[in-house]
Amino acid sequence: MTYPEGYTAAVVGAASGIGRAVAERLARAGVRVACLDRHDPAEVAAGIGGGAVAQALDITDAAACERTIGGLWTRFGKLDALVNCAGVVGRTNIISEDVDHDDFETVVRINLTGALFLSQPALRRMRETGYGRILHVASIAGKEGNAGMAAYSASKAGLIGLVKVMGKEYAESGVTVNALSPAVIRTPMVAALPDAQVKYMTDKIPMKRCGELDEAAAMIGWIVSPECGFTTGFTFDMTGGRAVY
Ligand SMILES: NC(=O)c1ccc[n+]([C@@H]2O[C@H](COP(=O)([O-])OP(=O)(O)OC[C@H]3O[C@@H](n4cnc5c(N)ncnc54)[C@H](O)[C@@H]3O)[C@@H](O)[C@H]2O)c1
Q1: Ligand 1 atom 26: the closest Cα is on which residue?
Q2: What is the pLDDT of residues 86-102, one digit of tens each?
Q3: Which residue, 79, 66, 81, is CA-closest to 176?
Q4: Phi, psi for 35 (deg, rounded to 5)
Q5: Quick one: how far is CA 196 from the chain centroid?
Q6: What percent of the chain lies above the pLDDT cut of 90?
Q7: C-beta of 56 in contact with ligand 1 (< 6 A)
Q8: Atom 7 of ligand 1 has which residue's CA nearest to it?
């Protein structure tokens, strides 16, 4: 994948998993990358080189999102792409009648409200410059609903809806807003889930395997490139054949 000279991207959730893989891949392709995460992503940024910068950011803090995106604009002169890989699973293996209210609100606050807080300062500035690529990582759980994962599934379904709205609202501005809906990708987040939950998810995948980090990073890298110009508001599939719509 090639990008125009001076292409810039902010990757949120860059300290781990899919976000880290995306940051590394974009940097290898010559993109100037800002690594953002609530856990200081300095080590990741230092590892990928290429002028990558790192900053701690909690996306549930709207003022911090505004300051951080604004600061990157000043530093880079623009921001071509925003990739949001920040997310949490919350408590799992719990049927809806037993869902803990605090846990539900925490998961929604990060996976859905945080995506709004993060998008707003980027959308405003990208609209003014007439170009932008925003990609939020949702989940197959948001399309299908995973039993025992009410908060996670609901938050990702909400995120898919938010992306549809933003895609339509900014369709004439040069800014695209899309989502990616993976099934199980082999990351630390998956490693932390109970075996029964992982088996429940991979059993439903026709390819009968997890997706790989490189596969996710490659797809995201293309979605946030100038080449992916005629698709917006869409949720790209990455499920080994589980979702075919
Ligand atoms: N791994 C999978 O199989 C899979 C499948 C479908 C969807 N997803 C989604 O992909 C995204 C990345 O998942 P992953 O597996 O790489 O997880 P991960 O836990 O490895 O990485 C998630 C990152 O998000 C960061 N983060 C969490 N809350 C944050 C906040 N409030 N502000 C800023 N950063 C925050 C974490 O610090 C972490 O570095 C998540 O949204 C997840 O829901 C993952």
Answers
A1: 86
A2: 999 999 999 999 999 99
A3: 81
A4: -95, 120
A5: 25
A6: 90
A7: no
A8: 139
| 221 CA from centroid of ligand 1 (Å) | 17
Strand 235-238 vs strand 53-56: parallel, antiparallel, or unpaired?
Answer: unpaired
Instruction: Assign residue 90 the CATH number of its domain.
Output: 3.40.50.720
**Is the residue at 238 inside a domain?**
no
DSSP string computed for 87-100: ----S-SB-GGG--
- 47-67: average pLDDT: 95
List, for residues 100-127, the tens digit of each pLDDT value.
Answer: 999 999 999 999 999 999 999 999 999 9
Q: Which ligand 1 atom is the nearest neighbour of the CA of 19?
A: 16
Q: Is the distance from the beta carbon of residue 64 to the nearest atom of ligand 1 less than 6 Å?
A: no
Known catalytic residues are 152
- Check if 112 has its Cβ closer than 6 Å to any atom of ligand 1: no
Q: What is the mean pLDDT of the chain?
A: 96
Q: Which domain holds residue 123?
A: 8-233
Q: Is 74 in a helix, a strand, or coil?
A: helix
State the total domains in the chain: 1
* Residue 109 belongs to a domain: yes
Evaluate whether residue 15 is within a structural domain: yes
Q: Are 234 and 245 spatial neighbours (Cβ–Cβ below 8 Å)?
A: no
Considering the domain boundaries, does residue 47 fall inside one? yes
Instruction: Please tell me the predicted confidence (pLDDT) of residue 192.
Output: 83
Asked if the model's pLDDT at residue 200 lies above 80, the reply is: no
pLDDT in the model for residue 80:
98
Q: How many angstroms is it from 172 CA to the middle of ligand 1? A: 30
